[in-house]
Amino acid sequence: MIPALFVFTYLAVVLYVGIFAFRRSSRHESAEDYFLASRSLGPAVFLFSLFGTNMTAFTILGSSGHAFSNGIVTFGLMASASALIIPLTLFFIGTRLWALGKRFGFMTPVQFFRDRWECGHIGTVISVVQAALLVPYIIIGMMGGGSTLSAISGGWIPYWLGGATVALVVMGYVFFGGMRGTAWVNTLQTILFLSFGVAALFVIGSGMGGFREAAEGMLGSPATAPLLTRERISPWFFLSYTFIPLSTIAFPHINIFCLTARRMQQFKPTVILYPICLLAIWLPSVFLGVMANRATEVPSIATKLEARKTLAAQGSALPPEERSRLRQTAAGDDVIVLLLNHYAPVWLAGLLGAGIMAAVMASDSQILALSTMFTEDVFAFYGGKVRFGPAAQVHTGRIFVLGLTAVAYLIALRAPASIFELAVQYAFSGYSSLFPLLVAALFWKGSTKWGALASTLWTVVAVVAVAVFQYSVPAPHSGPATTVWTLFGAPALSRTPGGTAVFGLMPVVPMVLISMLLMVTVSFLTRKPGEQTLRRYFSRMNETAHQTGSGRQLVANMVE
Amino acid sequence: MRFIFTSIVITVYLLHQDLWFWQTAQPLVFGFLPIGLFYHAVFCLLCSAVMLLLVKFAWPVQFDEAASALLPEDEGR
Questions:
Q1: How many Å apart are CA A268 and CA B52, to the nearest integer?
Q2: Dist. CA A178–CA A182, nearest whole Å
Q3: What ipTM score was computed for the predicted complex, to two decimals?
Q4: pLDDT band at A540, cuts 50/70/90?
Q5: What residues 506-545 of chain A have any CB closer than 8 A to a CB of chain B?
Q6: What is the maximal distance between C-alpha atoms in chain A?
Q7: Using omega within 30 degrees of 0 as the cis cutoff, is the peptide bond preceding A269 cis?
């Protein structure tokens, strides 16, 4: 019960942060202030908040769970690849988006696409696809909030009440605080992560009698030694995973967040320190997940290990229901909570519970991003701002936040989590597949709206196709993949225990490559934007700085 | 300069694919950290160093100057 009190204190603090942010902004409230904090975030808030925005429940719970089952490979797949790719995309794309947003007043990527490619409804299609890929995250966040609060309180708080509490708190600080409140909460969340990840490592390490003995014990056992290497994973699969972090800058809540910095200089500490923040949070989570394989004195972990052993020994001989039950028992998403409950003092378990809660509540920035997209890309674009005035735009954004959170909560109460987990899994690939849009718009004069539309439609087709494939072809319980289609004797399309493989690679690779190919070929075949538009984007920035006023006017005209 | 930085980034990307530590956990660094995990932890630090180089020597100054010109006087860099 004490950990639950820590969590409730945390929830009260973040709600207060949202209201405090509202009081700070109420004097000059405009769409730019509510949705982008008046592009005024300072360097520390920008770094911590951008990082926190990108950290979800998966960072602590999922990463340690994945490491519990798959070993140290988790860090190379999900953390170190991101340590290179994400700062690079922030450096090359984030900075340019910020500069264009500052010059022309853009608040969403679709506003930029509409102006850059001289399009209207194609922008709406892109916005709808982006939104559709983001919604499952929000629902998963609600589900995670309900189950985490219920678990932390030892079942004292039922799932529905936990979910409702989290939904109300998130809704509260996003509704009142907008981007400013969300950024401050994310900053608090990141500081919690950074502080308590390392603390947990020391406390659990000392509880286990030091990691040296545990690591040597794992090395000595044939069942656990492979978890300390990457021998169970193909280097091609490992390589293809580096395409996943391309999705980060394409996520609307990230690229919209890039517009909130007060100055471009603020990207400097962010790109330099981002890999170190990743290291500080992921290394303890992954390492503890791996070491949990030696924590057999924790009864629930011993049960998980037993279930895994049974699956490995008799997997194919077991009936499907039994296999599914064992797989659920062996899953490690809660190992870090179990380790803490066993080894950490109550106060630390409570603080870490608050940290986990902070991660679960990462849906805040996604809700705000969807609200920004709706009010800017749809409401304002189709005449709402002109008809009802700028104040109505902010009210619409707030009503959208209320409606979206309520709908997400109701869906989270009724729908099975597995559907949304699958959707989230492929949303990453989907956003990676939309990455060429940003690159083409920023760096290639010859790109056209039709190329952008082709890439977007391809993304939709590919995400749906992979989801249908995974739904219709059952996953092998372990071992070699089930090959469904061969080409020249090579397995072209396979169902693996964890997903799908295309020529041994993750589907994200062909998705991104074909998206790029479509952008290039369709753009070559179609009419380019007018000379004036191209000059505005591709003449030297400092020569055209004086055009800013006309740029802003142009966007205003387009929107109106 | 552009060629040098492109080469550095490609080299670092290739270093992520550390086939040389694929099959082995030893040595255990500090007595408990498998070498493959330690390598990728150091890789993160290397990424940070590369970003520092990019920020110092390849910062898109023209975007920065153009956008900073829009800031109020007291907020100039």
A1: 8
A2: 6
A3: 0.92
A4: low
A5: 540-542, 544-545
A6: 73
A7: no
Q: Which two tokens stand for residue A511?
A: 């998705």
- Please give, rounded to a whole number of angstroms, the shortest distance from the CA of B60 to a CA of chain A: 8
Q: What's the mean pLDDT in A167-173?
A: 86
A302 in B contact zone (CB under 8 Å): no
| β-bridge mates for residue A499, sequence order | A496
Q: B68 to chain A: which residues are within 8 Å by CB?
A: 263-264
Mean pLDDT to the nearest integer, A110-134: 92
Residue with more model confidence, A242 or A7: A242
CA A377 to chain centre: 22
Q: Residue A557 above 50 pLDDT?
A: no
Residue A203 confidence (pLDDT) above 50 = yes
pLDDT(A354) > 80? no
Cα A194 to Cα A542: distance, rounded to the nearest angstrom: 39
**CA distances to A429, A435, A519 from A460, in Å:** 11, 14, 15
Q: Answer yes or no: do A286 and B59 touch at CB < 8 A.
A: no
Determine the residue among B12, B19, B24, B32 to mutate to test chain A binding: the one whose Cβ has the most chain A Cβ atoms within 10 Å: B32
Question: Tell me, what's the pLDDT at B75?
Answer: 47
CB contact under 8 A, A275 and B31: no
Of the CA atoms within 13 Å of residue A553, those in its CB half-sphere come to 5
Residues paired with A505 in a beta bridge: A502
Mean pLDDT of A473-499: 80
- The pTM of the full predicted model, rounded to 2 decimals, is 0.89
Burial A344-370 (b: 16+ CB within 10 A, else e): beeebbbbbbbbbbbbbbbbbbbbbbb
Flag if A95 and B60 touch (Cβ within 8 Å): yes
Nearest CA in chain B to A83: B44
- How far is residue B60's CA from residue A356's CA, in Å, rounded to a whole number? 37
Residue from A93, A236, A542 whose CB has the most chain B CBs within 10 Å, to mutate: A542
Look up tokens 């699956």; give the residue. A311
Q: Which residues of A29-54 are buried (b: 16+ CB within 10 A; e: fewer)?
A: eebbbbbbbbbbbebebbbbbbbbbb
**Quick one: pLDDT at residue B7?**
95
Residue A235 · residue A48 · CB < 8 Å: no
